[in-house]
Model the fold of this input.
Amino acid sequence: MTGRSDEGAAEFPAEAETSTGAPVDPDAGPPGRLRAGVRRLWQAGSGRSRDEPGEGHGEAGAGAEGSPAALPSPDSQVSRLLQQTAAWSWRLLLTGLVIYLAFRLAEVLRLVTLPFIAAMLLAALLQPLAAWLQRHNMSRMLSTWCVFMLAIVIIAAAAWLVITQISNEYPVLFAEVRHTVTQLQHSLAGPPFHLHAARLSQLSSDALNYISKHKSVVVGTVVTGGKYALEALAGSVLALFISFFLIKDGMHIWRWLISGMPPEARRRTFNAGEAAWRALVNYVRGTTLVAAIHALFIGLALWLLGVPLLAPFIVMIFLAAFIPLIGILVVGALAILVTLVTKGLVAAIILLAVFILENQLEDHLLQPQVIGRMIRLHPLAIILVLAVGGIIAGIAGAIIAVPVAAVITYAWPELRSGPPPRADSDPGEQPPA
Done:
């Protein structure tokens, strides 16, 4: 029969021929009709009778339409848009779960993760100077020690200046505070408060009694503060050690981490790491410049107003600039309080106006223009990532939000780059640019 499939030919023998050469119909007679019925049943079960012409086509086709193979699949009944949406949904949910678990792990290991982040920022600030010294014929070890000791000297000098000025100006500060308190008492004794000395003494006694009744709360607060101080000290020492080895062997550590990848993946990862590091360096440079501008202008305002503890406030303002949104607010509130109790209400209002002006300059000019130009992020993107980082992880999230966004922005195109111009080149073995 014409149109019989190869499998059908394998299952059933070919048509026999007579001795005279005339073909013999294998379906003739009762045995032949039985074989033809079996063949039709087999074809109906396999669902191929609709594609094969010949005997029994109608019966086989009817059997195939009722078979399970002819029923439409469930996926064919769902629109293509809904299938793609479902596929992206479970992938995004899984990615979000992984990111959440990573944040939780980082929170548990905060005594390691926070010093590591601080060490990365410090290494990004010092590594360009070490690279410059190496380009001028200085060994890697010697250049690392030079920049590391320079950082230690600057930090120690700032700490010594702060401690010395606090110890020297504390008697003057105490005398000015006592004088301000006396003036405040006289002001409260008049209208509209009419709080005389006896009433103020009663309020002080009530405050002392409240503290004595809640001694456990006060002691717990002090113990918690001491615990955080010890953690900060240990984290600072760990951050210094990590930053030293990142400056000295950062490139070798990175090459070792990617050494087990295939050549093409290693090339892309190496280029992405270099781009991410350049973005981090640019961010640290921009933030340092913004912090210096804050310390200069606010320090000048404090000096003109004659506020005590000038050096400690300048150092705190410089460090607070690395904590977006909340850092300047906290230090500004402390500076305004000291100005109020030492120089009066007018000086405090002037300093408040200076801080408001500085805050507006940071939000609309310094952060978007200085840092945005160095890391090439749009000002709106910087503001949004700062808000998202602060919501997700508080102060630590606000600190690392912009550098993380810059690192991803620079590294992602390198990870998706095409093949190299020459297949025999291995970027993982080339010296850094």
About this structure: The mean pLDDT is 74.
